């Protein structure tokens, strides 16, 4: 089975997830890890599964990832899986954070699903986890999203840990589940 793991990553967090997915698959599949900028849409025909990763910007996947997805020919035969890292808390935190996730990262999965549906691609899975924000984004969160000082301090402590070991092992398990279902 030929698998491509390709990603856009501006500060390295999504790259860490891409590497975890790749490392989990490389023993049992003919796997390639590439930055999105090195990947041509025409290369995709060579693969059975393509994992595409994006940071979450403005609640959505980043422009280069969207543009890449939009160039994929309709009804391409490979199976598509998506992954993102986002700095907001995950919805599992519950309460107001569920809404906050929807507002600040909710479009990411929907974009993958929408483009895949429009192109009649087989979209077989999506993974997400927190990725530490850079200093300007921390600042933005402080002024626009979490204004309470104590809450913001807690957020910083948590955010700066990610992706952590658990995220990396979850990403590996995600990749294993996908490949396991297709074997
Ligand atoms: C310009 C910019 C916009 C961002 N917008 C969001 C956002 O809307 N929601 C969110 O949860 N995180 C947002 N983030 C945080 C990133 O998604 C997060 O830190 C991610 O892990 C970065 O991935 P990377 O290191 O692969 O670039 C933003 C980051 C940047 C630089």
| Helix run count | 7
Oligomer: single chain
What's the order of the H and E elements?
EHEEEHEHHEHHH
Secondary structure: helix percent: 40-55%
Report the mean per-residue pLDDT as an integer: 97
CATH class descriptor name: Alpha Beta
First CA to last CA: what distance? 8 Å
The count of β-strands is 6
Percentage of residues in strands: 15-25%
CATH-defined architecture: 3-Layer(aba) Sandwich
Q: How many domains would you count in the coordinates? A: 1
Uncertain residue ranges: none
Characterize the biggest β-sheet: 6 strands, mixed
CATH topology: Rossmann fold
Q: What name goes with the CATH superfamily?
A: Flavodoxin domain
Q: Which term fits the overall shape?
A: globular
Bound small molecules, deduplicated: flavin mononucleotide
| Rg, Å, rounded | 16 Å
What structural class do helix, strand and pairing data support? Answer: alpha/beta
Mind explaining what this structure looks like?
The protein contains seven helices and six strands. The chain is α/β, with parallel strands linked by helices. Strands 1, 2, 3, 4, 5 and 6 form a six-stranded mixed beta sheet that branches. Helix 1 packs across helix 7 (165-182). The longest helix is centred in the C-terminal third of the chain and has 18 residues, at 165-182. The radius of gyration is 16 Å and the shape is globular. The mean pLDDT is 97. It binds flavin mononucleotide. Flavin mononucleotide binds next to helix 1, strand 3, strand 5 and helix 3.
């Amino acid at each position: 089975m030929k698998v491509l793991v390709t990603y856009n990553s501006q500060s390295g967090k999504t790259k860490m997830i891409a590497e975890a997915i790749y490392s989990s698959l490389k023993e049992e599949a003919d796997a390639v890890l590439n930055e999105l900028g090195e990947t041509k849409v025409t290369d995709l025909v060579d693969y059975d599964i393509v994992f595409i990763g994006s940071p979450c910007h403005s609640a959505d996947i980043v422009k280069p990832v969207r543009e890449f997805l939009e160039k994929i020919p309709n009804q391409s035969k490979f199976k598509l899986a998506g992954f993102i890292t986002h700095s907001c808390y995950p919805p599992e935190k519950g309460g107001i954070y569920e809404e906050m996730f929807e507002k600040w990262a909710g479009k990411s999965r929907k974009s993958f699903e929408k483009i895949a549906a429009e192109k009649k691609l087989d979209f077989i899975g999506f993974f997400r986890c927190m990725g530490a924000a850079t200093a300007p984004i921390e600042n933005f969160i402080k002024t626009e999203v979490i204004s309470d000082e104590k809450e913001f301090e807690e957020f910083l402590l948590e955010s700066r840990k990610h992706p952590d070991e658990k995220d990396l092992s979850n990403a590996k398990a995600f990749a294993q589940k996908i490949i396991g279902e297709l074997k």
